[in-house]
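If it is no trouble, might I ask you for a protein's amino acid sequence along with its backbone structure tokens?
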Amino acid sequence: MSNFADYRPDAARQELSTTVEVRPARDEDLDACAELIVTRTGGPAAARRERLVADLQNPDRYTVVACVDDQVIGYAAVIHHELSPTDPPNTAPTGYYLIGLIVSKDWRRHGIGELLTGERMRWTAERADEIYYFANLENGAIRDLHQSSDFTEVTRDFTFPGAPLKPGTCALLRADLSGR
């Protein structure tokens, strides 16, 4: 069993019957974000919250939430990765990376992922001409979402510091932001 959202490419997108606010995360959102993260990764929410606090203080990271009536229903982030001289030759390139897109189970297939991704790409376009993300090849839902945002595959032979990637199980993708 995977920790990814169920992949149902033929499932109809459900119409939103309420307003969804997509905005930068604030301190008061971090408990809800940490809880969303542990629904996929497991582990203690408190440890995830500590990392989120540090992310909010880092100008090279951007955490965004989707809310309905002040309730966080989705979380996503962008980080800046810088190559180090000691990194292996197949380490992912320096740049901004989309990470951690998680939407509450009750709100999936409402376009929340697209809203969060669009906001992260908008933010990154103010800082860079390209953006990356990497995904497990088994995560069809996330791959379809990013394909609609003009991401193209770069390689399957790469490492990323701190990410538990198994060779041949993930793809590194890139999108051009220069025209946005």
About this structure: The chain has a mean pLDDT of 87. The first helix runs from residue 30 to 41. The longest strand covers residues 71-81. Helices lie at 30-41, 45-56, 112-125, 140-147.
